[in-house]
Amino acid sequence: MIDLTNKVALVTGGARDIGRAVSIQLAKSGAKVAINYYDNPGDAEETKRLIEENGGTAIIIQGDMTKPEDTRNLVAKTLEAFNANIDILINVAGGLVGRKLVVDMEEEFWDLLINLNLKSVFLVCKSAIPFMNTGGAIVNFTSQAARDGGGFGALAYATAKGGVLTFTRGLAKELGPKGIRVNAVSPGMINTTFHNVHTKPEIREKVAASTPLKREGEAHEVAALVTFLASDAASFVNGESVEINGGTYFV
């Protein structure tokens, strides 16, 4: 059992799906969790309830992670609530929004996807890192799309996630001498609202059937990997992007 007792964890996009699973797993491991959400207060309240129901500690903080002032406010409220620096930062916030080909893509849509998935990670890290100490850990969310270019119409999303992958590696070199590790997880097809909205059922079935494990992944499986990377059990893992896709893609 991973022990994160007395650790303070900040999870962006921590209210639902994979973010919720990560928040809950960190709390089960003993961390005090600050859960960021954007526009789903009901989901955030439910995640907080689930954590507290099992004896954990959590707060919820609304904020748009593409806005510098919101990322600074998120960090400030986390520090105030727990009266301690941040030990663990998990950047889950992001999304596909929609599928568009390059010839049909407005510049505003491109900027939206880059800001939502890449700029947000930069802004949150910039705000949080000054309040992280030796032994701290950052886990960013990239995607299998960063490796294979993404599905049809997901070029902007895939490009942004590729940026997160490179950002993770560069930041790992930058923060390593300070004793702060930076890693990423790269999910494939996971059973979440993301695919309920953006992926046709027949495509999901086809991907699951072609996966060596013959199924989609589940959010709690990603959360277990994230918790490992955030813990001292991964104390010499730095600058890595760990694929979690059931064997559909190898690096």
Task: Give the SSE map.
Elements: E1 8-12, H1 17-28, E2 32-37, H2 41-53, E3 57-62, H3 68-82, E4 88-91, H4 107-128, E5 137-141, H5 145-148, H6 155-175, E6 181-187, H7 193-198, H8 201-210, H9 219-230, E7 241-244
Parallel strand pairs: 1-2, 1-4, 2-3, 4-5, 5-6, 6-7
What does this structure look like?
With 251 residues, the chain is an alpha/beta fold. The protein has one domain: Rossmann fold (3-Layer(aba) Sandwich). Helices cover 46% and strands 15% of the residues. The chain has a seven-stranded parallel beta sheet, with helices on both faces. Helix 1 runs parallel beside helix 2, helix 1 crosses helix 9 and helix 4 packs parallel to helix 6. The longest helix is centred in the middle third of the chain and has 22 residues. The radius of gyration is 17 Å and the shape is globular.
